[in-house]
Amino acid sequence: METPDVSVVVPVYNTMPYLTRCLTSLVEQTIGPERMQIIAVDDGSTDRSGRELDRFAARHPDLFTVIHQANSGGPAGPCNRALDVATGRYVFFVGSDDHLGPEALHRLVAAADSYGSDVVLGKVVGVNSRHIYQDIFARNEVEVSLFDSPLPRSLANTKLFRRDMLERYRIRYPEDLPIGSDLPFTLEACYRARRISVLADYDFYFAVRRFSATNITYLSRHARRLQTVEANVAFVAGLIEPGKQRDAVLAYRFDHEIAKLVEDDLLQLDRATQQLVHDGLGRLVAEHLNDDIADRLGPETRIRLALTRDGTLDDLLAVIRQDAEGGVPRTVVEGSRRYAAYPGFRDPERHLPDACFDVTTVPDWAAKLDATGLAWEDDDLGERVLTITAHTPVPQLAALGADPLTVSAEEIPADTRIIATGTAGTTVRIRFRAADLLAGSDSTGQRRIVSAQVGAFDPDRAAGKASANGAAGSAALRAPRLDGAVPLVRRRGARLYVITPTRDGSGRLMISVVPVTPGRVTARLRQLVRRR
């Protein structure tokens, strides 16, 4: 048998019925079966996944290699076992609940051959409102840098890798990590690669959010996630020498995986777990969070992480509770310095350093808003618009340099107007046209974080600001005391879509655009039945 162009690796554990769609999308690849090798590793599935793999293998015996093994506790072991038997010039990893566009592998292999790339990213889109960072997919790029691009935000393994590079450096998945094992694998591959390319002009990979949300990542707990974060930060520190390059990678780890551990849901955990997270992150912050990295973080992340290092658990919880329940704190201005007056600021009993609350260098601290009202209305042209009323305790935004103030749902701008000012603060009216939200969303559905920034709307800047707590240069709108609004149903082409403003687990305001499908309707009905 000739060497296949690409070995497709599919780790499988209990993903029916999504697995059928995944395998079908592989069989239907336009690159053709003679240029492919599919290696599926059944990691001790207890549903029908193993039988489904065998069914496909029986139909396509020259295409499929199926390996059945006892459950290993995560995808790392199955991926490594598949790599050991792969023979393709390239390797591509597919989650068994995801699927590919028909031309995905053909386009990826052609690009790698044409550009001499060791790693190729194809555009990933979310299904069922799964949020996928899109800034790395802004345009086609023959070559991108790991250290001077949004790539460190997108280190999932859903990429094409040159196999002889993986073998030359013996790059494998760490099997002691039940979750997050693809980050060190992908990071090292990108670090070793001679060239990394991006293809953004086709929907290559459809990342599915299961209606039941039962995969291992969704179900992971804080203690396990802390273990993963500690291991991944140690891996970065061991792979990359201290300096700007390491900081560029670690900044995304702090802004995402680490920041997620101090989101609002920390308030709901038991005291022992809260303390574990506080102390573990405090050690990471003390060792790795320098000024260069801190300057890239949003205000909430900076303050909360500083308190894991310089404050007690109760200090941290008080700040989180303020954001989750109280809203934006006032700003204290002293000369050229600005401070966020969270609980604990200059409390003589707490002895917390002012530096924990210093937001002087945070570009858009003044853009931190609380959404206080949501409504669907008709504008002057009779078009449906989502109107968001938001508030900040800052009496005059211009005095803090927040003039103009712009709001967007990532790359979709809103009409933003200040409608009231006074000693109680500033009220802002934000309007999104339903037509814009619908036209700008993928056919599979999309969720966008609503964020504010100081200055004119910049789509490139907006595309990169959907971070854990608002990236540096933006501030995610929060909705601490706001119930969800009524969804709006609109048609695009032959399909119906539901546009819904919603609040995520950390109180951030998001706008979800999802297609009406039988599966979604069934899942919604099941949720309603369970609530009764």
TrEMBL record:
Record-linked Pfam families: Glycos_transf_2, TarS_linker
Residue ranges constituting the Glycosyltransferase 2-like domain according to the UniProt record: 7-128
InterPro entries: Glyco_trans_2-like (IPR001173), Nucleotide-diphossugar_trans (IPR029044), TarS/TarP_linker (IPR054028)
Limits of the TarS/TarP linker domain: 229-319
UniProtKB keywords: Glycosyltransferase, Transferase
UniProt xrefs under PANTHER family: GLYCOSYLTRANSFERASE, GLYCOSYLTRANSFERASE EPSH-RELATED
Protein name, per record: Glycosyltransferase family 2 protein
